[in-house]
Amino acid sequence: MHLVIIGNGITGVTAARYVRKHSEMQVTIISSESKYFFSRTALMYVYMGHMKWENIKPYEDWFWEKNKIELMFANVTSIDTDSKSIRIDDNSTVKYDKLVIATGSQTNKFGWRGQDLKGVQGLYSKQDLEMLEENTRHIHAAVIVGGGLIGIELGEMLHSRGIHVTFLVREKLYWNSILPDQEAAMVSRHIIEYNMNLILGVELKEILPDEKGRVRAVKTSKGEEIKCQFVGLTPGVHPNIDLVKNTKIETVRGVLVNEYLETNIPDVYSAGDCAEIISTEGSKNKPALSTDKSAGKVEQLWYTGKMQGEILARNILGEKIKYSRGIWYNSAKFLDIEYQTYGFVANSPRDREESFYWEHTSGKICLRLVYSSSDRAILGVNVFGMRLRHRLFESWIKEKRTVEYVLENLHMANFDPEFYKKYEHEILEKYNKENPGRNLILRKKNLIGIF
Amino acid sequence: MNKINSEDQLIQIVPFKIYSQNNNVELMKKSGLAVTGIGFLFLLISLTGISSSQPIMFFFLSFGLIAAGSIFYFIMLTKEAPAGIKNNRIFFEAFTSRKTAAWLLGIILTGFYVVLYWYPELMQNWINLVNPLSYWLRGKAADHWFLYGSFYTTAVVVMAIRMIVKYRHNRYQIVRSISVSIFQLGFSFIIPGILVRLNKPEFYFNYFWPLKFQYLFPGEIRYLTSNGEALGYFMVFWGIAMFVIATPILTYFFGKRWYCSWVCGCGGLAETAGDPFRQNSDKSLKAWKLERWLIHSVLIFVVVTTGLLWINSATGGKALGTVSQAFAEWYGFLIGALFSGIIGVGFYPIFGSRVWCRFGCPMAATLGMFQKYFSRFRITTNGGQCISCGNCSTYCEMGIDVKWYAQRGQNIIRSSCVGCGICSAVCPRGVLKLENLPMAGRYNKVD
């Protein structure tokens, strides 16, 4: 039995490792990006000089041979699902018994004039990083289009090289499409604190070239022209499915899969950023995937990629298990401010939802609890500048603990390093003030167990 | 600047401060560095003996300017960017990324140790420089060990200020840096000096057997008890009590960090002057294997040496003659001088700051065994938040591949971990926390 995985990102590698651990199947991972698995989220640290390339490889190079996972550094040019084989760029073919498509994402480009000029690029792959190194040599001003997680990382990267950064953000605050106003304002303030230029409520109109075909400025939707020698396009990503488009494997936005991460073709699976998962609720057998093309969901996070990789492996091994991502979580870092979120926090309270917000006077630490208006059950938390225990919050959300319970036990969830200042009292005080009649106090820690 | 009018409230997004490219700050930083450089220049020319007529003036022109200039420089760094992890350019700068400058520095440091151990007379003019300080503190002339202590303590205290500035957002690092400075300055410099002044045995209360192996050697115990009177007996008692009672108890509650990254002088230097080089430790599995062989061999070596000395002493020298003494001398040369000094500190810029602590220190080996099997200490991981970025492993001075555990959601319990807390500090996702919790469920094997 030969399992071939196209793509060596977190999804493909997680699947390969799980299969290896639980079976003797032959496993091959093919990637045209790099021979060895690396942490995509850590690319920024290589550019900033925090780490070397070797440091962002999660496993030492001997690991793969020892675990009998074959690595192929090659570009897959086509897939033939009839003969169960794939063709790679040296024209050889590789036969498979089971195939996984885990090809990840590509940077969105919305057809702006000048988007393919020299000095204009996104940031996703190892090749992008190498290009960035070239594109940003000896420059002093850059414009970043799109106010999201890759945008802020790219901004931090360029800033570390002494390049002045201007953000063009469509929303009225940074990442306001996801973050509520206060949190988005906090991030925006922090960006300005770094002396980066934050232009809000504008869009990119076009990118202007110089006589050598290199970017010299951008024009905004308000007609303003901003001089720069580099443009970073970070308005999100979309599934990288070019390889699959001319095959019998169905795609819409991504490679269509059911909750078992199976495509419409037997023995072909897909997971991670490139997969579009269709709900199969109610149907027992493999559904006709193309029946409902609008409902697919594409998840493009490191965490979901990892979870899907494992579920995928278990299905390949015959377990028949549905992917469900469980209680949502995510984390990021905006320059110096860490962010964690558990459960679901919309950028403005939805129906029958309320939220409690506390912010420290430093303007760099805050906490938001979102809860249901009816039973006051906690639905989600946003936390900045403070660390909270993931598993504990997850269980509180699952157990539908009330916002009051969560607040009174908040110190139990604190994950900050020792000696850090504690804010639980201040947070409770604010809640008590806003909710007359409430008099919440921190529940004492259980002292038994010190020994 | 920017004001945003949301539906019901006016949200202002003007920060308290804007850290712009500031020429004044650049200038201040440069002048700090220049003062440090001038200090080093004075130190260098003092070697010629030019300072002999004015030792106090030259002491301040060398030690004083180096300290003042660098402290000024560190403080200026706070005006450059907001507090936070700033490891920018570490792998580009020659000094911190094993390029030529790092090798040069390594050779200079190594050369310094060679001269210190075997040709101290070459440094007589430097010794003269600290002579007034020695008279003031100890009431007697300086020797090369006092000079070494002065260098060492200056390095720890000045670079602890750098640590405090660099991690000014992280209270664990601030408290820890203050702790190592106090132990170095107080317990390894001032108190031994005062003891000398009082004609008592020079004793370091923050070093114990087996790191300070002599403290349980029969000869040393005889010396302490006969020369130190009551205090001498206390010193012997202290040495034994710290090893037999305090070590297991404190390690049970806090892990080996209570000593290695809070109290110990070797650790103190590594955590301060060695911090810029921590990323150079070897993280490979091979290095871990070598570490376990070497460190336990040294522990056996020191136990055997101590044992031989006691057998010999008990039999009045009949049992082994001069063999045990020769054994002890070899231990002192190989481990005390070569390993802990020349390789341990001399190679900071190449192998990272904890080579001795990781591969050689018998105290670390003992503490490590307690930490692994009988301690409440562990580094916990925060659910599924790890992104395998590798910052924790890269900045682990002990060469522990922290992310190997973190990405599996497994507690990190390694005998070598000194609990410096930097992995937790550099983690961009808030995944790691140093914790002392009940021992049950400590090893949460996953997969």
CATH topology of the largest domain in chain A: FAD/NAD(P)-binding domain
| Structural class determined from secondary elements of chain B | mainly alpha
Question: What is the tally of beta strands of chain A?
Answer: 25
Level of helix content of chain B? 55-70%
What does this structure look like?
The complex is a heterodimer of chains A (451) and B (447). Chain A has three domains: 2-106 and 238-316, FAD/NAD(P)-binding domain; 120-235, 3-Layer(bba) Sandwich (FAD/NAD(P)-binding domain), CATH 3.50.50; 329-434, Enolase-like, domain 1, CATH 3.30.390. In chain A, a hairpin with a 5-residue loop joins strand 24 (366-372) and strand 25 (378-384). The longest helix of chain A is centred in the last third of the chain and has 15 residues, at 302-316. Chain A has helices spanning 10-22, 43-48, 62-66, 126-135, 149-160, 181-193, 302-316, 390-398, 403-408, 424-434, and strands spanning 2-6, 26-31, 69-73, 76-80, 85-88, 93-95, 98-101, 105-107, 120-121, 141-145, 164-169, 197-200, 204-209, 215-220, 225-227, 230-233, 237-239, 255-257, 268-270, 275-277, 329-334, 337-343, 353-359, 366-372, 378-384. Chain A is built from ten helices and 25 strands. Chain B has helices spanning 23-46, 55-77, 100-118, 124-129, 131-138, 144-166, 171-197, 218-227, 229-254, 257-260, 265-272, 285-314, 323-343, 348-351, 355-360, 362-373, 391-394, 402-406, 422-426; strands spanning 3-5, 10-12, 377-381, 432-436. In chain B, strand 1 (3-5) and strand 2 (10-12) form a beta hairpin. The longest helix of chain B has 30 residues, at 285-314. Chain B is globular. Chains A and B meet through helix 6, helix 7, strand 21 and helix 8 of A and helix 7 and helix 17 of B.
